[in-house]
Every structure is written in C-alpha cells, then in structure tokens.
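Pasting as-is:
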Amino acid sequence: MSTPHSLPDATDKNALRAWLAARRSESAEKPAPRTMAELRSVQLKRLARSMESGTETESHERQERPVLRFALDGDAVRSHRIESAVLGDWLRAFQAAVQSVAYALDDLRPTRDSGPVPKEIQRMTRLFSGPVFASSYGMVLEGAPDLEQGELPGTGSDVLLDRAINRIFDVADRASSGVDAEDAVLDAALPLGRRVISHLSELSDVLASTGTNVTLTWESKATSRRTSSLSSESADRCRQALRAAQVEDTNDRLVGTVVGGSKLRGVIELEVEGRGVVVVRTPKEDVTGLLAAYAERQVVADLHVLTARSPGGREHRSYVLLELQEPAF
C-alpha cells in the first residue's frame, strides 16, 4: 500500500487519481510563493532543514572519533574573535604537548629515551580542526579519522591519545587546586620527563602571557566526558612551577622489600627503611614477572632518578627501574 506522499503504480489508475487529488489538496493548504519575499522565506526554511540534517550527520561522525572542545575567553577574546597569532600559538603548543605526553606514556618507549617523538606517535595523536561553536571563542578538535586500533603493538591510537589528553587535564586540574598548586603540578608532570615539562610550560605560557582562560571538554570511547578549566592566573602558577623547578638526573641504588605493584600503571613498590614506600616505574610487561620473582623479598634496585626542586624548596622525585636483583649478602 502506498503512503499519501509516495507515487503509486502507474497501472493502478484509481490509486493514481487519488494520489493526484491528495497532492492538489496539499498544494491548496500550502500555496506556491507569489512574491520574492515568500520565495526567499521558503528557500531559507529548506536551507535550515538541510543544515540541521547535515549537523546531525556530522555529530554522528564525530562520535566515532575522540573530540576535544575548547572555549577561550579573557583579554585576548573580544566580540567572539581572537587574534590569529594567539590562536595559532595555543593550537601549536597544545598539539606539541599532546604528542610529548603521549610519547612519555607509550609503553614501547625505551626507558629514558630523549630523542625526537617518533612519526608514528605524531601521526596517532594528530588533532584536526572542526567547527567553531557558540562561546566567547570555541573550537572543536577531532582525533585522526583514518587510524585503526593497534597501529603500534599493544597500543590503540585512540587509547594513547586519550591517556595523553587526560594527563594534561590532570596537570590543569592541579594548577587550579589553590593551596600548594605548584607542588601538585610538579608531582603530576615530573614522571613524564624534561620534554613534557618544557611543552607544558610553553602551553601554560600562551594563556598566562595573553590573559586568556580556557575550558576544555574531552569525549572519547574511553572517556565519556571530562571537563577541565584553566584560568590565566592558574596557568601562570603552572608556568612558574615548571620553569622555576631545578631538574636533575642521577642514578641511585636502594635496598628494600618488594611490597606491591601494578601492571596497569607500570610500577612496582619498594619499602625502603627511612623512606617508606618508593614507587618505581618499569615496563608494564615486566611487572608480573618481577612480582612473581621478588614479592615480599629483599632486593637491590638500581634506579634512574629524576629530581625537581620547587621554588619553595620541596623535592619531587620520579624513579625508573634499571636493574633489580637479590642482595649479595
């Protein structure tokens, strides 16, 4: 059976007559435009319906990829416009920070490797400009649409990007935490290494030096929705903490007892007399074997130590395992 708006079989003359009569009746209810103004009104309505349909399609497509929305306001934003140099600096610094954090978190990265970010990591964490949305100044950034899971063994492209964005949000949240914010920033950034500290400093400098505030919202398959805000003042605290910190590399040897660990986080925990529990980073694939061999046993751990001293004199340390063995005595 045909619907009132579908064309019936041409061989069914009665149905065809009924369909033509229904169309004439509908046209009588909605007469054809008689003036240029009426014609323009009809065209605008059709255009609006077309745009709404296109927006729904774009929204569905964006759900298939990770999406970051950022809204900028403050001194650098006026009448929903922002100076191109400020926007360009922000986008460049944010992309560089994402790539450096992703490399620091990549499970396959050689320990203490300080070379350039590999092209695979750069490609997996590229962000693409999407539409501008209603805000003081708002823009959508989307993850790469053409990457498949597992381009690097054990690491999906969207998973690595998700981890990097969330770690940047962690730093932003700590910069806005108020009391002891500078120490909190260093605690979050130090384990990621010198390169990340430098890029996060540049990113916060864009906001602090231009009097700009930002609100970030992240959505991905792994993160349903997360929002973080960083004011110009908080960005300045973050910048000062990262720039003023005195960072140095040393090696150390600790004697302690293996009391725990986490394959998910890629760490083992050593209880050291006089220091308490020391968290030591190591490749995730090594954690299970190390715990099986040394759990609740005394060990000698050779470590690489990255130390940052805050302006207030507090020391922050990050430990990476070089070698673990039983004591000789």
